[in-house]
Amino acid sequence: MNDSGIAAEWRRRLTAAAGAFVIGVLAPGAAANAVATPGQTPDSVVLAQGLNPHPVTLIFPRVRPLSAMAQLGRKLFQDPRLSGSGQVSCSSCHDPAHGYGPPGAVSVMIGGADMHTAGFRAVPSLRYLYRQPAFSIGPDTSADNEAAPSLVQQAQHALVHDKVLKTALSPQAAATNLVPQGGIFWDGRADTLQQQASGPLLNPAEMAASSSEAVAKKIEQADYAGDFRALFGPNIFENSRMLMAEAMFAVARYQIEEPGFHPFTSKYDAWLQGKARLTAAEARGYLAFDDPARGNCAACHLDKPTRDGLPPLFTDFQYEALGVPRNPAIPANRDPAYYDLGICGPYRTDMRDQVQYCGMFLTPSLRNTATRKSFFHNGAFHTLDAVMDWYVNRDLQPERFYSKDARGNAVKYDDLPAQYRPNVDTTDAPFNRHPGDQPALDKQEIQDVIAFLGTLTDGARSGGH
Ligand code: HEC
Ligand code: HEC
Known about the structure:
Strand order of the largest sheet: 1-2
CATH architecture of the largest domain: Orthogonal Bundle
Helix content: 25-40%
CATH class of the largest domain: Mainly Alpha
Shape: globular
Bound molecules: heme C
Order of helices and strands: HHHHHEEEHHEHHHHHHEEHH
Number of strands: 6
Structural class: mainly alpha
Distance between the termini: 41 Å
Number of domains: 2
Oligomer: single chain
Strand content: under 5%
Largest sheet: 2 strands, antiparallel
CATH superfamily of the largest domain: Cytochrome c-like domain
């Protein structure tokens, strides 16, 4: 679909969406169609004043004192002794002072038993994982289907289904797509926080503990060993596998219960509730973020509350191949044969043969993204300006982002082997552009979107200004 096609489609759906749960959806063109009842201020006017025309009541996670289990989890989360080097804890990479994301600007963190081993991927924030569904292909139906098909069966089934175009106007439609969704890590290889936590502990590039037994020994000598006996019984130290499972459960409880992992104190949260006013730039950025013909960001980074009133997490939990440029700062990339293919490997192995998913990575939440200094799974960009420049000019001026081949031509999507480059998304805006087209966003709109992203940072005073 070309631009005007999308705009027309969008207007059609906007008209059809009467009665559906749509708040604050407005952009040029839409206003013309919105019928304002006499005496009512049209949404566009309210929005132009930075106000939310349809404030909502949001349902936030309940804040309660941490359970004994979660308190134990916090101690484990902060304990560097559990690592092979004795110097790294979960919070070294997932720093509470940086939204549980990386503290610095490096693309990948250094860890390992000798503290010299570089990681392979950028450190994600651990905030807002509390609603992350388990990995599946297509919406998760396992709850109402006892004999759920295997992932490989799901992938085969999905091959014959066309994918719905992702537009910011009706992201609900794309939610039914038979595409990979859910899971944690950039490739979704773990389903739960508990399952996940032993990964970094034993990962040689992260905490590099030599074995579960070694971790168990250290826990037995820790000053919180008594907490383990109190919670799990006096025999807990006799079975190191059981001990590890309980320890990881405690770390997961900490991430679920500690309000710092899902504070919802951003200006945008206040705005959704009608308690804050966006600046002119933020309001323009919000409209561009939402406009299917411009940013179309909300097609994947969902920005509306759910039907049940849960606050938006700025991800649809789905995976996409965006063709982010190869990052020479990752030591593993010195080997030209090494590729990080996301879902199809090398760090998850069950989907190796599903080549249609090679290059796909999880859509991350954009909450607190303005505080990050490394973006995308490989940390290829370090500022939001650089991210936006690439989003808008990826296919218009590829030579500015990608390496060159022997003839001096840009190798588009150079962080994927040639045979997987067709997996890269070239249909959903803003990735549907060709050389010579108008960029999806102009310079002003890019700055506006960046201003809007700034409203997603936690810690703003509620009430706005
Ligand atoms: C040396 C840095 C480092 C340390 C230490 C570390 N992590 Fe991570 N963590 C990462 C990286 C890198 C990723 C992304 C890896 C991937 O996607 O394959 C990650 C991913 C995660 C994720 C998935 C987040 C998401 O959005 O999908 C969770 C949860 C997590 N780590 C928890 C922990 C816990 C709990 C600990 C301590 C037991 C820990 N991490 C220690 C670097 C680290
Ligand atoms: C078709 C789905 C899709 C659309 C549309 C989309 N994104 Fe993304 N976004 C992703 C995926 C997938 C990633 C992760 C890709 C990777 O790391 O390889 C991502 C990553 C990002 C990141 C990096 C976050 C981090 O923690 O590293 C930012 C910032 C971002 N997107 C902003 C935007 C903005 C702004 C727009 C609109 C101009 C937009 N996105 C449109 C899917 C999308």
